[in-house]
C-alpha cells in the first residue's frame, strides 16, 4: 500500500488484531486487498472496494450498512460512489474529528460517530441518549471505520446472514477472512462475482467444522488449543440480531485428535452417518460406497458424494457446539461397528472432563466382565443389565453385585480389590449425575471388546437410552 499520500493515519491499525471480530475480519480483508494492489493508496483501495460493491454487487449491502451512501436507493450508482469517497476523504483529512478514545481499538485518536450506516450492530445516531455523553453514536477512529468498510470482502453469507469466524489465535482468524477475500477477487477476475460470498454450509455448526478442517489440514503449526467462534448476524431491518456459536479449544483439540492418521478412518465412518438434509429427507448413508443414496421417484436413485453432503447439517456437530454429550451417538454406533476406544477416552477426558482414573477403572471393569462371563450368553446378559440401568442406584447395585462380589469370589486370595472405597466414591460415583456417562462408557468398552474378539450378540432395539 502506498502510505505517502495520507499521513494522518496509523497504518498499523488498519490490519492489526483488535478485540472486535468484525473489525478484525475487515482488517484482514484489507490486508489481502492492499497486497493485491500494492501501488494504491488507502483512498484508491476504498474506491476499488466501492466499485465492487456498487457495480458488481448492485449495492446489496443492507445487511451490513443500513442507509449508507452505497445502499441509499435514491442515489444513482455514480452518486453512491462519489458520496462514499467524499465521506472517507473527510475521515482521512480529520474533517469534523473529535479527540478521544476509540471504543474498539482503545486508542486516543481522532474519532468519529459510528452508526448502522458505517459499522456493525452499533445502534442509531438518532437516539443520542443511548450513547456515552450524548454522543451521536459509538465513537470510532478512522482506521476502524475503514476496516469495517472492507468487511463484506472477508466474510460469507450463511442462510442469508453475515457469518464471521474469529479465534483466540489471530493467524486462524486471519485465515478465514483472507480465504474469503481471495475467493472474491478471483471470482471478480473471472467475472462471476454477483454479491457477497455465500457459504455452502446448511448450519453454523457445519461451517465451524468445515473451517476446522481447513485449519487442521493446512496449518499444522497453529496452536493446538485455539478456539473458534462464529458470529452470525444481520444489521438489516428493524430487528438487527446476533447469534454466537463456539467450538472451544477442548473441542478443537479433540477434533484434531480424531482426525489424526491413526483414528481418522474410524471417526470418518462414524461422523459420515450423522448428516441430514431437508432436501434429501430419506437419504441413507452407504458405508460400502461412502455416499448417501437418495431414492427419487422421478429421477430414480441418486448418489450424493462427500463433496456435497459434508455441508449438510450434522447431529454430532450440533451437539458439540451446544455442549451436549455425543456419547449416546457413539454408543449407538458401537453396537454394530468398530470404533477405537482411544477416541472415547480422549473425548471423555479432554472434553467431558472425566478423570483418567475413572476411565482406567471402567476399562478394568470391562476386562473383568469378559473374564467372569466366558460365553456370549452371559456377556449379552450383562450388557442388557447395563441398558436397563436408569438411575445411579441401579448402576451402584450392578457394580457391587456383578463386579465387586464376583471379583471377590474369583480372586479372594488377592489383597487388592477391583474397586476400592476410594475408587467407588471419588471416581465411579463422585456425584449423582455422572452415572449415565459412566454406564455408557462401560457399555461402549464392552462392545469394542466384542468387536475385537469377533463376537456377535443380539441387543434388541427396544433397549433404551436413559
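-> sequence recovered:
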Amino acid at each position: 500500500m502506498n502510505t505517502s499520500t495520507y499521513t494522518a493515519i496509523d497504518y498499523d491499525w488498519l490490519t492489526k488484531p483488535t478485540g472486535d471480530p468484525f473489525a478484525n475480519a475487515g482488517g484482514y480483508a484489507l490486508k489481502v486487498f492492499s497486497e493485491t494492489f500494492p501501488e494504491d493508496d488507502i483512498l484508491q483501495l476504498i474506491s476499488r472496494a466501492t466499485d465492487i460493491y456498487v457495480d458488481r454487487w448492485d449495492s446489496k449491502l443492507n445487511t451490513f450498512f443500513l442507509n449508507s451512501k452505497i445502499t441509499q436507493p435514491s442515489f444513482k450508482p455514480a452518486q453512491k460512489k462519489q458520496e462514499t469517497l467524499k465521506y472517507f476523504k473527510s475521515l482521512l483529512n480529520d474533517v469534523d474529528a473529535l479527540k478521544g478514545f476509540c471504543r474498539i481499538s482503545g486508542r486516543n485518536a481522532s474519532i468519529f460517530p459510528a452508526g448502522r450506516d458505517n459499522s456493525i450492530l452499533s445502534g442509531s445516531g438518532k437516539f443520542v441518549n443511548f450513547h456515552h455523553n450524548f454522543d451521536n453514536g459509538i465513537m470510532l477512529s478512522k482506521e476502524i471505520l475503514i476496516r469495517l468498510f472492507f468487511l463484506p470482502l472477508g466474510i460469507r453469507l450463511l442462510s442469508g446472514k453475515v457469518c464471521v469466524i474469529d479465534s483466540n489465535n489471530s493467524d486462524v482468524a486471519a485465515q478465514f477472512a483472507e480465504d474469503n477475500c481471495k475467493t472474491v477477487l478471483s471470482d471478480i477476475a473471472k467475472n462471476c462475482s454477483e454479491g457477497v460470498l455465500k457459504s455452502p454450509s446448511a448450519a453454523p455448526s457445519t461451517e465451524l467444522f468445515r473451517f476446522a478442517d481447513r485449519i487442521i489440514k493446512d496449518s499444522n503449526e497453529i496452536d493446538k488449543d485455539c478456539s473458534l467462534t462464529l458470529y452470525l448476524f444481520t444489521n438489516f431491518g428493524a430487528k438487527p440480531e446476533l447469534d454466537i456459536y463456539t467450538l472451544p479449544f477442548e473441542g478443537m483439540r479433540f477434533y484434531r485428535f480424531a482426525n489424526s492418521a491413526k483414528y481418522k478412518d474410524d471417526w470418518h465412518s462414524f461422523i459420515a452417518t450423522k448428516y441430514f438434509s431437508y432436501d434429501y429427507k430419506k437419504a441413507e448413508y452407504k458405508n460400502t460406497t461412502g455416499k448417501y443414496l437418495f431414492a427419487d421417484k422421478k429421477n430414480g436413485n441418486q448418489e450424493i458424494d462427500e463433496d456435497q453432503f459434508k455441508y449438510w447439517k450434522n447431529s454430532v456437530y450440533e451437539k458439540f457446539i451446544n455442549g451436549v454429550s455425543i456419547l449416546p451417538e457413539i454408543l449407538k454406533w458401537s453396537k454394530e461397528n468398530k470404533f477405537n476406544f482411544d477416541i472415547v477416552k480422549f473425548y471423555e477426558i479432554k472434553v467431558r472432563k472425566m478423570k483418567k482414573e475413572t476411565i482406567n477403572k471402567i476399562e478394568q471393569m470391562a476386562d473383568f466382565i469378559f473374564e467372569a462371563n466366558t460365553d456370549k450368553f452371559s456377556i449379552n446378559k450383562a450388557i442388557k443389565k447395563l441398558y436397563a440401568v436408569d438411575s445411579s442406584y441401579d448402576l451402584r447395585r450392578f457394580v457391587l453385585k456383578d463386579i465387586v462380589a464376583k471379583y471377590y469370589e474369583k480372586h479372594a486370595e488377592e489383597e487388592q480389590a477391583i474397586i476400592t472405597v476410594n475408587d467407588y466414591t471419588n471416581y465411579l460415583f463422585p456425584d449423582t449425575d455422572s452415572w449415565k456417562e459412566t454406564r455408557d462408557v462401560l457399555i461402549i468398552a464392552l462392545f469394542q471388546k466384542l468387536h475385537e474378539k469377533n463376537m456377535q450378540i443380539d441387543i434388541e432395539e427396544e433397549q433404551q437410552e436413559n
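The first helix runs from residue 21 to 36.
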